[in-house]
Design brief:
This protein has one helix at about 75-85; strands spanning about 10-20, 25-30, 30-45, 55-70, 85-90, 95-105, 110, 120-125, 135, 140-145, 150-155, 155, 170-175, 175-185, 195, 200, 220-225, 230-235, 240-250, 255-275, 285-290, 305-310. It is mainly beta. Strands 1, 2, 3, 4, 19, 20, 21 and 22 form an 8-stranded antiparallel sheet that branches. A 4-stranded antiparallel sheet has the order 10-11-14-13, with no helix packed on it. Strands 6-17-8 form a 3-stranded antiparallel sheet, with no helix packed on it. The chain is elongated and about 100 Å long. The two termini are about 15 Å apart.
Length: about 300
């Protein structure tokens, strides 16, 4: 038995599918909580000045734009990329070695990639110099001698002979350079730092490394296992053209199907995304323009959208 409509009441539900024009895998926007369309016109009228009541004798209207706005609460990597004009890359698990990070006592340090929480992390002091006679050294330079780490608290030129390196946070003058022992080059989890979902947090008072003061930065090297993830580079992609297809259902008309195909749409950067806070589920607003598809020819055919309903 063919489908028939039993009411012209309407509550739209369904799925929105974007297919890149020029090739590429289509993807769904997921749970779209609202989709509105707007047609703007440039309106000119000829007023009637022959009577006191006035009115219009002629009206000329030209469509200036056909736009839409979709509100999604499926916050997927593809949706984020679409809303932020982003390049997206799916990357797998990988060992990351000696990633350089800046550290201060009592601060959180984020790794570049999200780490696998079930895999070990290794944190060591990152040396950026080795000892060489009569060589200029900048304040803040870090040197590792075997297992111990030293920070140049005063810059200058090293001496002619290598100094005897102190321990127990002692200092040594080397030519005009002053080195301070800051502890063991290898940091220990639980003593010197705690794991976080994004990296580590250095203890306020670490056991094996001594920060000279709250403002002194000590570079560290992080070795960890990268969790599989997506990298999304915002505002790095040009605006892309899509075909947008809506596979709709009218929930008050026995779920009868409807569909609409927007032949050529261009997405704009998102006009709203609450990344943090609030008690409700986050929503991402995607807006776009429906453009004419000059490839659609034939009497009575729309160059913009074709709809079908029972």
């Amino acid at each position: 038995m063919s489908l028939q409509s039993t009411t012209r009441g309407y509550k739209g539900r369904g799925r929105f599918i974007l297919k890149p024009i020029g090739g590429g895998r289509p993807f769904e926007l997921g749970n779209v909580t609202g989709f509105t369309e707007s047609i703007e016109v440039d309106r000119q009228s000829r007023q009637d000045y022959t009577t006191a009541a006035g009115g219009e004798l002629d009206v000329d209207e030209n469509v200036t734009s056909f736009t839409f706005e979709a509100t999604c609460n499926d916050i997927t990597p593809r949706n984020i990329a679409a809303g932020f004009l982003a390049n997206i890359e799916q990357i797998g698990a990988q060992s990351i070695s000696d990633e350089i990070v800046e550290s201060w006592s009592g601060t959180r340090i984020g790794f570049r990639y999200l780490p696998d929480p079930d895999q070990a992390v290794s944190i060591t002091v990152a040396d950026d110099t080795t000892w060489t006679a009569t060589t200029a050294v900048a304040a803040g330079a870090v040197l590792v001698d075997t297992t111990e780490a030293y920070l140049a608290t005063t810059g200058g030129e090293t001496g002619a002979t290598e100094p005897t390196w102190p321990t127990a946070n002692g200092t040594v003058t080397d030519g005009t350079v002053v080195w301070q022992h800051i502890g063991n080059a290898a940091l220990v989890a639980g003593d010197d730092y705690d794991r976080t979902p994004h990296g580590i947090r250095v203890k306020d008072t670490p056991v094996n490394i001594a920060y000279p003061d709250d403002e002194t930065m000590v570079p560290l090297k992080a070795t960890y296992e990268r969790n599989p993830q997506y990298l999304i580079q915002a505002l790095a992609a040009s605006q892309q053209l899509f075909e947008l297809r809506w596979e709709g259902l009218n929930s008050v008309d026995s779920g009868n199907p409807l569909h609409a195909t927007y032949f050529r749409v261009k997405l704009s950067p998102t006009s709203g995304f609450q990344r943090h806070g609030g008690d409700d589920f986050a929503e991402l607003t995607l807006s776009g323009t429906v453009l004419a598809d000059e490839g659609r020819t034939g009497a009575g055919l729309s160059k913009f959208v074709e709809m079908a309903m029972i």
